[in-house]
Amino acid sequence: MTQPTDIRGVHLRAALCLAASGVPVMPLRAGKVPFGNCRRCAENACGGRPNMKTPGPCACPQPCHGWAAATTDPHVIGSPPWARAWREAAAVAYHPGGAGLTVVDLDNAAAVAWAHETLPDTRTVASTRGEHWIYRGAMRSVNAVRDGVDIKSTMSYARWLGPGTSSMAELPDAVRALAVKDPTTLRPMPQAVQVPAPAGGGECPHRTPAYLHRGIAMAEQRITEARSQVHATVYRTFLAVLSTHGRCGCLTDTHIARLFTAAQTKGETARHCTDAWVNARITLGL
Questions:
Q1: Residues 114, 151: one domain?
Q2: Which residues have C-beta within 8 Å of that of residue 199, sequence separation ≥ 6?
Q3: How many Cβ atoms sit within 10 Å of the Cβ of residue 165?
Q4: What's the predicted TM-score (pTM) here?
């Protein structure tokens, strides 16, 4: 069902405002679902993202690849290819991981009560049946980590429900642990390792700060989901990050620590992480 013009305008204005703050956005159809693939991309004929499981933005000019279509580019958001989507949009969604965020989606009163007892306070937004708790930091998205609780971050989308209340806290280990199916397999806390970040101007010139946040989140995801050849995956991931951001100086010690933490959670030693990072820099001549 088509939305009235004023409602469409509200959705578009909200999307542009979010994009301006570095949050990748996309329109949602009625039922809180993304728009289906356009004719050009039907049955992934475009070579796009099957089932939206491959990291990376969508190259199609229409918002038809789920979370991968989310963008911060105002020219794309307001372009004619997106016009039909905004005419039919029932809500605005965003890609939390692309903005360096994690949403703990609490779907009922019991889940909300559990969060108050278990998780540190953070920014909270009321939802239809419960609340969204939003933390600063990205991680793997997992549904049904417990009754009424989903985690939405990288390679996922969440409805925009408003700015919320309270200050946003850093993503705690208690939330990261929810993504582990068997808590008994959790490894010891990773050691802090001091590795100097590459020198440079301190600003990423490629796109926006969200580009760097998205890249780090995707790198963490790649390491976390490695099922074999973890050593090689860690090295290749470090190499990819450094090849993109190693010369512009936008990487900070915090970004490097996130990558090392992901690797050590998979069983890598602090020494191996340091060696892999140094070797990647040597390979790239940094």
A1: yes
A2: 249
A3: 9
A4: 0.63
